[in-house]
């Protein structure tokens, strides 16, 4: 069956169709710092269930933004990394992180804690 013509009110909708939701941007953000194994992602995002992590990784892989590499060894080893297409999201993900930091400071002052706060470098470096 041929896909019907898709209509969007704005291209933001198309972006959110790929990376929208609670967990996909967080997963992608962590992958901007390099390859990660399933357990590494689970440790970086402790609130996500294993089932949800697997589902989100599968959906991101289907969209072509992450690559899943399975190594034929015992015990099994699987790594996830951004594809070239996925790397095109780095700037927006890091800008979202910076905006979030500013928002937390504005809204909560010093009364909010960010557990994973990697060095993003100068905003002109991305």
TrEMBL record:
Occurrences of domain HTH hxlR-type (ranges): 10-108
Domain of life: Bacteria
Pfam families: HxlR
Signal peptide bounds: none
Stored InterPro entries: HTH_HxlR, WH-like_DNA-bd_sf, WH_DNA-bd_sf
Annotated keywords: DNA-binding, Transcription, Transcription regulation
Protein name per UniProt: Helix-turn-helix transcriptional regulator
Protein species of origin: Lysinibacillus agricola
